Amino acid sequence: MKQAIFFFFCFCLAASAAWAQIEPYDYGFGLGNSADGQSESVPATAPGSPEMAGASYIVSAGNTVEISVYDEPDLSKTVRVSENGTITFPFIGEIRIAGLTAEEAAGRIADGLRGDYLINPQVSLFIREYSKFFVLGSVNREGGYELRGPYSVIDAIALAGGAKENANLSRIKVIRREQDKDVETTIDFETQAKDFLLRPYDRIMVEEYGVISVLGEVNQPKSFYPKKGFTLLDAVALAGGFKENANVTEIKIIRKTQEGEQVSVVNLDTQGGSFLLEEKDVLYVKAYGNFTVIGQVKAPGTYYLKRGLTVVDAIALAGGFTGIASENAVKVIRTENGRETSIEVPVDSILRSGKGSDRSRNIPVREGDTIVVPESLF
After folding, report:
1. How many other β-carbons are positioned within 10 Å of the β-carbon of residue 230?
2. What 3-state class would DSSP assign to 349?
3. pTM of the shown model
4. Exposed e or buried b per residue across 31-58, where buried means at least 16 C-beta atoms within 10 angstroms of its C-beta
5. Confidence bin at 246 (pLDDT 50/70/90)
6. Architecture label for domain 32-129
């Protein structure tokens, strides 16, 4: 009895050793034997990588696939997937594999061969060459890229080295061929690019922003590319701020529309932070006009108007009164709607009143005003 048990134990050890020499057969998606006897596997990438080669990759039009049938070298083929997603294979004819994983596509080919042609065909399939998409325009590396997985527009722009500073990411165009014609879709990078998945031969066009120009009475007249949500205040800040004589209450915005040129006049004080600019806008900041001071002042003449300048300020700018000036008889000659009017300003009383009621009579000077300081009779 002991001898029988001993022989049985030896038989089990021998069987285990023999079994260890048998390598698992490759059904196309795991380990198997290559032509040189070495084990091989379907090409794959690390989990989480967008480059889903191998069994997890979805076959698409334009891919070149390598198909192998075990022990049937005449059936091993490298073929290109047509635009309608099919290939032509011996004994099967046309068969659709686009939209399937590599494993599913191999299984479909095996099903087509099974029965009349082969008893139990073992088919492997992997991607030899990928279809492409194209990224053009305002990116750092324009060109064609392999579509190695479910890429989004964000992935595409990243592969192209990112967008340039002047890229208009709020209006990215994706041009797709559908039913023998180009279909254009416009998407916003922030809200749509993550979920917009690419297809073979898609063309992504990232356009430039048109420049905004700031001209006139600013410290650094210039043109620059705006960002999303760019306001009038932002533009003036980039242009170095206003000059002293800038008329900030009447900034002209010239905008091109489909109907033609549109001109808006904007008050910075009330609209500067809310008025949104558009690409290709032209801002013109004009200077305040001139005014004139004549009569009994020390430096009569014509002066540039400044923001908030009052009659008292104008007299000071002209050197102040002479010794024989009638300080309470100052008049402002102003033309309004084609009619000339005269406004009396009691400068001496205004100065004496401090913050009193007469301060309200210290009116702002307007463009074209003439301030007359008469001579005192006494």
Report:
1. 20
2. helix
3. 0.51
4. ebeeeeeeeeebebeeeeeebbbbbebb
5. confident
6. 2-Layer Sandwich (3.30)
